[in-house]
Design brief:
Elements lengths: L2 H8 L4 H17 L11 E12 L7 E7 L9 E3 L3 E2 L4 E13 L12 E12 L2 E13 L4 H9 L8 E4 L8 E4 L1
């Protein structure tokens, strides 16, 4: 005899127990610690500054950068620079943005990775129509820069870490300067 039939034969006194177990099972993912409490998600201010892109092979057209934090769905955690004309194989964006970011602290008291993605695009006109190509992308782990940024601030230096990043998924050797 199948299990379902045995339960039905046993009578109604089993049904509330079965229902309670089902309800408990449905609530279990919320109660079993899959969400991280706010005490383990400290809030940081991200001061994003995109300075320039150099070594662009083409001399004409415009360029802009789309960025986002894949770990967040908030509208403030995505954006783009203005379209800036390319001059002398270089683009000066001068883009700044300050946003709050929550990083997660794991059980060993270290910050878990939190990446920010940059997609660098170029627009140019070809035969009277506009073309858009992706020059490359960059992924940066923000958790690696928290300690270095705080140390620079304590030493009286300008807050933040400024670095040049070689574009990934790119056929050109352009570098992006970000702080």
């Amino acid at each position: 005899m199948p299990l379902a039939e045995k339960i039905l034969e046993a009578g109604k006194h089993f049904m509330p127990v079965l229902q309670r177990e089902t309800q408990y099972w449905l609530r279990a993912p919320d109660d079993c610690g899959l969400t991280v409490p706010k005490t383990r998600r400290p809030k940081f201010e991200l001061h994003l500054k995109i300075h320039d892109l150099n070594n662009i092979p083409l001399v004409s057209g415009t360029s802009f950068i789309k960025w986002h934090l894949p770990s967040s769905q908030a509208a403030e955690h995505r954006g783009r620079t203005d379209k800036v004309p390319i001059k002398d194989h270089r683009v000066d964006y001068g883009y700044t943005k300050t946003i709050p970011v929550r990083l997660t602290v794991d059980k060993n008291q270290t910050l878990e990775p939190c990446t920010i993605h940059f997609e660098i695009l170029q627009e140019y006109s070809s035969a009277g129509r506009g073309e858009r190509i992706t020059l490359g992308s960059i992924k940066i782990n923000l958790a690696e820069y928290v300690e270095a940024s705080e140390a620079a601030g304590r030493e009286g230096e300008e807050d933040g870490v400024t670095r040049r990043y070689l574009m990934q998924e790119s056929k050109i050797n352009s570098t992006l300067k970000v702080r």
